[in-house]
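sry for the spam today, last one i promise. C-alpha cells for design, 260 residues
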C-alpha cells in the first residue's frame, strides 16, 4: 500500500483506501485471473479485416494507438517527477501536498474533481464485461477529446510563464501532440468498427481556465497541479482501456502479460 504522500506527489495515480474513483476500478482490471476471463466478453464479433482506409488493419490501428498512449503516459509520469523536483514548482506543489495531508476531505474533493470523472466508466471487471466494444471505444474517445482544450491552454500558459523550464514545456507540447494523434487514431478505429457512425459532440467540459490564468500565484499553481494530476490519471486510464480492447480483439500475449 502506498503512503498518502507517495500517492499524491509521486507517479502513481491511485488513492489507495482514501477514496473510490476511476482507478480503483482499473486496479481490478489488472488481475491476471480476470484477464483470462476477458475472452468470454459478450459483444458483437470484431473482425480484424483490412479495408479501403489505407489498407490498415484494426489490429495495426490498435497497436499504433497503444504506442501513442504508452508514450503519453510515460511523459505525464516524467512530468510529475519534474514538477515535484524542479525549483520552478516544487515549493508550491509541496505546499499543496502538506495541505492535503492536513485535510483529507479537502484532498478527496479536489482529486475527485477532474472534469472527465463525470463520465460513467467501469468500476469493476463485471461492469467492463457488460460494455460493448463500440461503447468502450466511445468512452475512450470522450476522455481523449475532452483534453483538447485543457492541453491547448496549458501549453499556452506555460509558454507565457516566466521561468518555465524547457523540459516541462517541451513535454507538455508533446503530450498535446500525442493526444491529437490518439484522437485521430481512435476515430479511425471507430469508423472501422461502426462505419457511418455519427460524431458525438457531447464531451466533458473543462472549467478551470480562469484559475489557470489567474494572477494569484497560489491559485495559478494549484490549477497546474490539478491539471497535471488529472491528465496523468487519464493517460493511465486510456492506456489500460486500449490494451483491454486490443486483448478482446486479437486475444494475443498481452492478455497474459503480468505488466498489463
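last one done:
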Amino acid at each position: 500500500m502506498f503512503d498518502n504522500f507517495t500517492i499524491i506527489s509521486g507517479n502513481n495515480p491511485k488513492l489507495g483506501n482514501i477514496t473510490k474513483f476511476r482507478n480503483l476500478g482499473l486496479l481490478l482490471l489488472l488481475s491476471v485471473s480476470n484477464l483470462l476471463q476477458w475472452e468470454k466478453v459478450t459483444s458483437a464479433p470484431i473482425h480484424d479485416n483490412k479495408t479501403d482506409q489505407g489498407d490498415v488493419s484494426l489490429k495495426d490501428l490498435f497497436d499504433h494507438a497503444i504506442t501513442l498512449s504508452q508514450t503519453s503516459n510515460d511523459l505525464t509520469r516524467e512530468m510529475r517527477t519534474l514538477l515535484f523536483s524542479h525549483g520552478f514548482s516544487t515549493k508550491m506543489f509541496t505546499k499543496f501536498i502538506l495541505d492535503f495531508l492536513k485535510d483529507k476531505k479537502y484532498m478527496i474533493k479536489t482529486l475527485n474533481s477532474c472534469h472527465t470523472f463525470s463520465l460513467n466508466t467501469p468500476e469493476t471487471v463485471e461492469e467492463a464485461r457488460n460494455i460493448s466494444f463500440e461503447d468502450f471505444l466511445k468512452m475512450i474517445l470522450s476522455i481523449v477529446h475532452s483534453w483538447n482544450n485543457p492541453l491547448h491552454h496549458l501549453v499556452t500558459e506555460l509558454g507565457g510563464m516566466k521561468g518555465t523550464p524547457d523540459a516541462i514545456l517541451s513535454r507538455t507540447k508533446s503530450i498535446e501532440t500525442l493526444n491529437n494523434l490518439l484522437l485521430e487514431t481512435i476515430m479511425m478505429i471507430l469508423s472501422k468498427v461502426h462505419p457511418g457512425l455519427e460524431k458525438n459532440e457531447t464531451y466533458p467540459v473543462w472549467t478551470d481556465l480562469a484559475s489557470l490564468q489567474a494572477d494569484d500565484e497560489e491559485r495559478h499553481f494549484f490549477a497546474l497541479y490539478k491539471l497535471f494530476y488529472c491528465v496523468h490519471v487519464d493517460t493511465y486510464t486510456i492506456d489500460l482501456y486500449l490494451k483491454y480492447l486490443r486483448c478482446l480483439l486479437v486475444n494475443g500475449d498481452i492478455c497474459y502479460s503480468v505488466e498489463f
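Residues 217-250 form the longest helix (34 residues). ok im logging off now
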